Amino acid sequence: MGSELAILGGEPAFAEALHVGRPNIPDEGLVLERIRQAIDRRWLTSFGPLVKEFEEELARQAGVKHCIATCNATIALQVLIRAGGLRGEVVMPSFTFIATAHTLRWEGVTPVFCDIDEETGNIDVAHARKVITERTTGIMGVHLWGNPAPTEELAALADEHGLRLFYDSAHAIGGTRLGRPVGGFGDAEVYSFHATKFVNAFEGGAIVTDDDALAERVRLTHNYGRGEGNHVSCVGTNAKMTEVAAAMGLTSLENMAYLIDVNRERFDRYAAGLADVPGIRLRRPSPGNTVNHQYVVIEVDTPGTGLSRDDLVATLQAENVLARTHFHPSCHRTEPYVHEQAVSAPLPLPHSEALSDRVVQLPTGTGVTLDQVDQVCALIGRAVRHAPAVTKACLA
Ligand code: T4K
């Protein structure tokens, strides 16, 4: 690494981009063998043996009776919202990926945004309580960056008001709360297996639930409303997972323990490398939680660093470190919801806004070496030490 930061005129530290979200390829040989077997069987989609095996393993791992695999998590959320009978308004945290809100809107439900606890990044249950109205039919919790939400408090709130409780668990497979695995909380949870996710199926999702009746409606809804003998009993869509996706997903799932170790090693290395950088804080799982460490997230405290979050990101990107700022802006500051404040966000959401202005995601996973983690930490340290010059360069 040269001595001058690229943003100040030096050479970029990395010749090739270091991505956030580089897929983990579990065991390439086994993935290809499974795909070859699927081709040999001439059974490529529609409840094939690999999808069934993947579903069984996901349900076992979550400690629930049912799993329905889907083509992605966005469709899985839509299917669950419809099959679960959500109508009117649903309370959800604003600080999440836009898909959580859009899937409700797509199903004709109004997402009512509530604030988060900045420490955990998850829904502020006291605020959620305040935005419940007579039109509310459910709560959509999110385990942000894999850190499980306050599931006990949310269950109590949902019970008190007779609401459905679902979780968008797109980030969270492999995590636990108070010793219980993610996947078994609320009435149902939804995983994402997008290429960038901890368990990767190219694209994919799944709904896990212990509720027999809900599972049955989800199964119908994700297959055109058709059940036994192709009898159609409700409106449905095509949300099925393919065998190719399941080949990757299953192999990825089998490697989960190894992938958690890889991620944790990188997380610990970031923790050591950033410990003495003023104004930079590495986010950690909440007490009682374990996570898959797929997301390495730092917070930039500008009074401490002398550098804005966006200028730090620009500095890293100039070095070919493609740091990201998910989830900025929060959903309630995004179209179309930003123009519907009276309905979807009746109160200000200062904590969502503050956190979304401070966070940066850094590269991790099998695509990033420990040496590269050290280099990224060194670049962040150097950017902070040269904050006035970096700020000036970013203004130019
Ligand atoms: N709920 C939550 C809380 C979510 O975060 C998401 C999705 C969902 C629901 C919906 O899940 P899905 O319907 O996707 O299953 C990405 C992902 O598409 C999305 O899955 C994810 N969350 C969201 C946070 O980010 P993009 O468009 O910003 O990322 P993308 O695909 O451009 O990739 C990001 C980086 O990863 C790139 O810089 C390059 C790298 N990459 C990506 C892919 C796909 C690779 O190196 N190889 C690859 O194959 O949305």
UniProtKB/TrEMBL annotation:
On this chain, the residues bearing N6-(pyridoxal phosphate)lysine are: K197
**Residues of the active site:** K197
Which InterPro entries does its entry note?
Answer: DegT/StrS_aminotransferase (IPR000653), PyrdxlP-dep_Trfase (IPR015424), PyrdxlP-dep_Trfase_major (IPR015421), PyrdxlP-dep_Trfase_small (IPR015422)
One Pfam family this sequence matches = DegT_DnrJ_EryC1
* Keyword Transferase appears in the UniProt entry: yes
Keyword annotations for this protein, in alphabetical order, are: Aminotransferase, Pyridoxal phosphate, Transferase
The family database entries (Gene3D superfamilies) matched by this protein are listed as:
Aspartate Aminotransferase, domain 1, Type I PLP-dependent aspartate aminotransferase-like (Major domain)
Q: Name one GO molecular function term.
A: transaminase activity
> Which terms under GO biological process does the entry name?
polysaccharide biosynthetic process
Family, per entry: Belongs to the DegT/DnrJ/EryC1 family.
Protein's UniProt name = Aminotransferase class I/II-fold pyridoxal phosphate-dependent enzyme
